[in-house]
């Protein structure tokens, strides 16, 4: 009886040797299907037994992969139980916002607050007096330049006494024909000398002195520019061509102009050592401003003089009573 090996088909002698079929147990295990509800980033790693057991499924409640812990060097260098040091520029008494803690005064008092109570009271009273005086002055000037009204009719005399002569107002700067003359105020004086004699000084050109003080001065004073001219303008508006007063303010205009020239003569030491001013006389030199080259207007530039009478100087003014 032939053996089973002999009944097998003869092995082909030609062609490549066929590779043996893989063992049924060596077949790769099919991968489990992913859970449809799980997000891609929340998929759990396959269980170790899933590789050998084809029926094994991923765990239904697989937790997402934990985030890696921070690197040990990234943690703050703070010992356990210690309090972090305050930030630079913030004192322990200040909060996290940098502001001072309640009840702590960090500002240094300045101005009136730095003064003691008596000085604060004195400064407040001084400021109040200055404010009241400024308000009164502005009110008087307003009533003076305002049209005639009930207040000026009843209190016009008080307003004029406040305004004249130092604060007189005029509109010549905005007139259609502004002032076009150079006015020079000159004065001479009669002096009683120390030995009892009398002498008369030469003419002092007070306007020229003011002009020299203004030249080269970027901020000349108002008195240097306008005091003499305005004083004479006040005098000429209250006197006629014969130097006679035409109103109630004539005497005031004479007194104002006389005091100015006496003060200037005192500064120039016109009386000399031991001398006393007895009388003064004023002369006004008026010269028209020349016309520009392009103008056809012809004006005379010859000076005109107006001589005022001699005025006696009171003893109080003559001995330095004017300041």
Can you give me a brief rundown of this structure?
This protein has seven helices and six strands; from the N terminus they run H-H-H-E-E-E-H-H-H-E-E-E-H. The chain is α+β, with helices and mostly antiparallel strands.
Please explain how this structure is put together.
The chain is an alpha+beta fold. Helix content is 30%, strand content 11%. Strands 1, 2, 3, 4, 5 and 6 form a six-stranded antiparallel sheet that branches. A hairpin with a 5-residue loop joins strand 1 (181-192) and strand 2. Helix 5 (222-237) runs antiparallel to helix 6 (250-267). Mean pLDDT is 75; it is low at 1-9, 38-54 and 74-81.
Protein topology:
Blueprint: H1 4-7, H2 117-145, H3 150-163, E1 181-192, E2 198-200, E3 204-205, H4 206-214, H5 222-237, H6 250-267, E4 276-288, E5 304-307, E6 311-312, H7 315-321
Antiparallel strand pairs: 1-2, 1-3, 1-4, 4-5, 4-6
Helix pairs in contact: 2-3, 4-5, 5-6
Order of helices and strands: HHHEEEHHHEEEH
Taken as a percent bin, the fraction of beta residues is 5-15%
**Helical stretch count?**
7
Mean residue pLDDT: 75
Q: Rg, please?
A: 56 Å
Per DSSP E runs of 2 or more residues, the count of β-strands stands at 6
Low-pLDDT runs of 5+ residues are 1-9, 38-54, 74-81
- Biggest sheet character: 6 strands, antiparallel
Look at the helices and sheets and give the structural class: alpha+beta
């Amino acid at each position: 009886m032939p053996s089973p090996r002999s009944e097998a088909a003869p092995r082909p002698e030609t062609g490549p040797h066929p590779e043996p079929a893989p063992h049924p147990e060596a077949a790769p295990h099919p991968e489990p299907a992913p859970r449809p509800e799980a997000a891609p980033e929340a998929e759990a790693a396959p269980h170790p037994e899933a590789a050998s057991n084809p029926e094994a499924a991923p765990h239904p409640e697989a937790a997402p992969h934990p985030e890696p812990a921070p690197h040990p060097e990234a943690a703050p260098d703070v010992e356990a139980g210690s309090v972090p040091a305050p930030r630079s520029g913030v004192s322990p008494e200040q909060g996290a916002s940098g502001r001072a803690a309640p009840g702590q005064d960090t500002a240094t008092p300045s101005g009136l607050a730095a003064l003691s109570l008596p000085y604060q009271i004195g400064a407040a009273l001084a400021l109040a007096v200055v404010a009241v005086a400024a308000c009164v002055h502005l009110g008087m000037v307003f009533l003076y330049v305002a049209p005639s009204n009930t207040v000026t009719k009843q209190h016009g005399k008080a307003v004029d006494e406040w305004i004249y002569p130092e604060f007189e107002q005029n509109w010549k700067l905005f007139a259609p024909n502004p002032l076009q003359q150079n006015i020079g105020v000159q004065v001479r004086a009669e002096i009683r000398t120390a030995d009892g004699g009398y002498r008369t000084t030469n003419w002092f050109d007070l306007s020229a002195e003011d002009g020299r003080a203004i030249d080269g001065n970027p901020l000349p004073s108002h008195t240097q520019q306008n005091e003499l001219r305005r004083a004479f303008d006040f005098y000429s508006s209250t006197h006629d061509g014969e130097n006679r007063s035409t109103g109630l303010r004539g005497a005031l205009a004479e007194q104002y102009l006389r005091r100015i020239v006496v003060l200037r003569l005192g500064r120039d030491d016109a009386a000399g050592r031991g001398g006393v001013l007895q009388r003064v006389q004023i002369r006004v030199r008026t010269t028209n401003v020349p016309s520009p080259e392009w103008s056809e207007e012809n004006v005379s530039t010859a000076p005109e003089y107006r001589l005022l009478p001699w005025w006696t100087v009171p003893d109080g003014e003559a001995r330095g009573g004017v300041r």
